[in-house]
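Thread title: Can someone regenerate the structure for this chain?

I was given the following input by a collaborator and told the matching structure tokens would be attached. They weren't. Posting the sequence so someone can regenerate them.
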Amino acid sequence: MKQEGYIDGLVSVIMPCYNATAHLEEAIESVLAQTYKNLELLIVDDASTEPIENIIWKYRKDDRIRYVKHSMNHGVAVARNTGLLQSKGRYVAFLDSDDLWHSDKLKQQLFVMNTRQVAFMYSAYEVVRDTPDNKINTIQVPQQINYNGLLKNTIIGCLTVLIDRKQTGYFEMPIISVGEDSATWLNILKEGHVAYGIQKPLAKYRVAGHSLSSNKLKMVKGTWRMYRQTQNLSILKTSYYFSFYVINAILKRI
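Best answer:
Regenerated them for you:
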């Protein structure tokens, strides 16, 4: 288990992918276009059947990019954990292979993080359907959130997160099918950290038009299980926090 020896100033970007040839190059370019240049990008291929290597080959001369391929499909949580274990940076961020960052995402977050000495940053983000310009909604976020607040509203988008591992210590994602990212943030905040948000959208979360209804139902069921399994909440407490989650999910309208 990796505990120390991270490179100060380096941001490790973890990008899990599975059969993501349609949007992978666009996601990679949004990382490489960051105005903050001290970064590494770990692309973890979760045993894709599509020719992901053909896209990665275009970036073979960029030593900031590392490509790791699983021999078997394990799911997104395991893929992210592979990236976490192999990453070298003090700071860690996540971007899925069909999502995008604004060019100053890391620069803005690092400025606030270092100015205020906080361990956990997130931001608002846009939800787009299929193409980056087809915006459905903007997910607004609070200026800060603690453990109890996040239980009531799983508002933190994984694609917006930046974490200082020098302050949080080693962490990894629980191996569950839904809500592994929210469970991770809850585990970090449970240790007493407070997460701080930038209210300007710094990323774009892409959804496919045909998958919206099925994804919402899956998330609702998975969030209940996540509360019970990873946070060890009683049925009474789960019901209490889950009621807030449902209300806030409706307000987000996604």
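Residues 7-209 form a domain with the Spore Coat Polysaccharide Biosynthesis Protein SpsA; Chain A fold (CATH 3.90.550.10).
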